[in-house]
Amino acid sequence: MNILVGQSGGPTAVINSSLAGVIAGGIESDKINKIYGAVGGIAGVLEDDIIEITDFSVERLALLKQTPSSFLGSCRKKLGSDEETYEKIFGIFEKYDIGAFFYIGGNDSMDTVDKLSRYGNKTGSAVRICGVPKTIDNDLVITDHTPGFGSAAKFVANCVRQLALDTAVYKMKSVIVLEIMGRNAGWLTAAAALGNDADVLGTDIICLPERVFDAEKFLEKVAKNADKGVAPIIAISEGIKGADGKYIGESLSLKQANDGFAHAALGGVGRIVENLISDKLGIKTRTIELSTLQRCFSQGASKCDVEEAYAAGYESVRFALSGETGFMPCFKRLSDAPYKMEIVPHPVCEIANYEKAVPDNMITADGMGITKDFIKYARPLIDGEPERIYENGILKFTTR
Amino acid sequence: MNILVGQSGGPTAVINSSLAGVIAGGIESDKINKIYGAVGGIAGVLEDDIIEITDFSVERLALLKQTPSSFLGSCRKKLGSDEETYEKIFGIFEKYDIGAFFYIGGNDSMDTVDKLSRYGNKTGSAVRICGVPKTIDNDLVITDHTPGFGSAAKFVANCVRQLALDTAVYKMKSVIVLEIMGRNAGWLTAAAALGNDADVLGTDIICLPERVFDAEKFLEKVAKNADKGVAPIIAISEGIKGADGKYIGESLSLKQANDGFAHAALGGVGRIVENLISDKLGIKTRTIELSTLQRCFSQGASKCDVEEAYAAGYESVRFALSGETGFMPCFKRLSDAPYKMEIVPHPVCEIANYEKAVPDNMITADGMGITKDFIKYARPLIDGEPERIYENGILKFTTR
């Protein structure tokens, strides 16, 4: 049989490491003949935009493992309920003699996997449908964590540490508002706390979407830290909300409070919070949006993440060959220290369309900080430096 | 005798590597007894905020070499012409039995070195006054380049490369406006071109302060590239100016042209250019400001830069001991391939208060691109990965 693999949703630093794992698993098995890739995810399948990727040398697989973004391209397509679409997709599977389809992605992609799997079951298709987890948001349920999170978290943590040193050089006090991705779950914003060490408290105000943003209490804590001259980095999730349940980034009341600063409306939540601090406290404030860098900075990827992303792809092929379908490989933590994981398949129907928020025990009582439970959980995920291949001073990549 | 060292101006990824070089040079010489550091630059000298830093272990020096930002703190103080200030400074030198003063910094700091040196000459002081170059702006004259530039350039280049891959995943065309530091010289913005390789043209619109920004021609080139689906990254120096000589970031005419986008005024030049593109061409555009990350990202520092910064500090001590004063160690390029440099002292009076712009042969005829001459010049400076010491997934640093 042949296999088909696609990538979907926002890119990460290690989504191609999972692709490398699927390709390596495919090459190793004598049951698998050709390996195909769908260009642009499930939309590419529907357009019959399929390329063969069987012939990957060991050297090229090593480059693929360190190439950020989606080698095969991506899409944001969500499947509807019309039979026609599914018929077309399974028609493509038949055309290429596909025995197993692997879809590397996050929440929306697992919805696609679930729907394809249901359709396959209903129609008695033999094609195994497999999800491979990836998302910097770390918001998939059942699995301990998701590939992509560790590397993004490591980038955030190192930025916090380095920016904290940079901010401390002048005697005048100033703060940085660091705007971090994660619309509905605060995992990546929480990772800012990993940038603290015994020497320097880089940040201890960390605002997640899991807690209501209270401007008054927030300003109190900012003023207190500024007085003490500690923790110049304020980590803000792009998804923080006010008591009215609305995103602060779209909050009219806060914008109006910032008279004359209507521009903040379009500058994102970071600028709104920046204006709050500088207007109300008169502290010099600068906003830094980590933007897409936090999801594509493979130069700072964690070895743990790169290897686990690869393993998720590789094991998926093994699971599919052993007859599993409609599953996603999940990480099951066996111990924190030494850090030990095992990968087990789990029905994707229990994963798709659920979201895992940061739990209460990882958030401090004041709702603006992170506890040691989070540090214990997340630290192993950002650990280790993979061997990196450079050329002319920039990381070497491979493209289609 | 004892020596005193200070740091000044904006931090870089390797300014502490130069400090490590001064300390190592001081420790090695049997003519030098104690090594002192001024906390907060020349302002710290004036406040008698002096600490002893003689006892650095080999291990701590290794950490110092990879610690970004200014270990000793910084200031932005420019010396005036009042005798009293100079008397006070030389009084502090006397108090601590200082035989040589080392000031690590950029253009403004070299002005300080020059002024102190003139005062010393006038008064017959035996204290040797030494400048040690550092600036991500690369705008000091005489020297081939400045420590700090290579690492910042490497960060910019790797960001361009990674962001170009990230932007390419969706079939819809979009561009990123990358706002890069450098108010008066475009060296660091030019470094975006180092992010291109044979596979992927990440950027070919690079706008420097050295050329007038012509919005019409700019939009033409953006539209042409977007049609071809190439070069999604547009590198913009924060210091680009219009034909009226005013910074685009403050240009009223462009702001007015963006009706209803008065917010752009405060979002920096990147947002203004973003609005230009999205308004006039209807192309999806995102601005990324690299902000202070580009000067403090030691996690991505170039080995060449780290070693040269160290050598600049170390050689300064040697030069001072051999009797030189009022100098700055300059890099003299012996060959491009293999890359070879030597370090020679040069009178600081011929360096302070001059600025080196990107020369004509490095800018394309259309004024919006970079030639191979720049690539040849800059590529060796971003080369090599230093050994890095990590702890818990984040780079390990040392602080005062």
Query: Helix segment count of chain A?
Result: 13
Distance between the termini of chain A: 23 Å
Taken from the alpha-carbon principal axes, the silhouette of chain A is: elongated
Give me the oligomer status. homodimer
**Can you give the mean pLDDT of chain A?**
93
* N to C succession of SSEs of chain A: EHEHEHHEHEHEHEHEHHEHHEEHEE
From the structure above, extract its key features:
alpha/beta; homodimer; 400 residues; four-stranded parallel beta sheet; five-stranded mixed beta sheet; elongated
Structure described in brief:
Two copies of one chain form a homodimer. Chain A is α/β, with parallel strands linked by helices and 400 residues long.
Report on this structure.
The structure is a homodimer of 400-residue chains. Chain A has 400 residues and is of the alpha/beta class. In chain A, 36% of the residues lie in helices and 17% in strands. Chain A has a five-stranded mixed sheet, with helices on both faces. A four-stranded parallel sheet of chain A has the order 7-8-6-9, with helices on both faces. Chain A has a two-stranded antiparallel sheet with strand order 10-11. In chain A, helix 8 (215-228) crosses helix 10 (268-281). Chain A is elongated. The interface between A and B is large, with 67 and 66 residues.
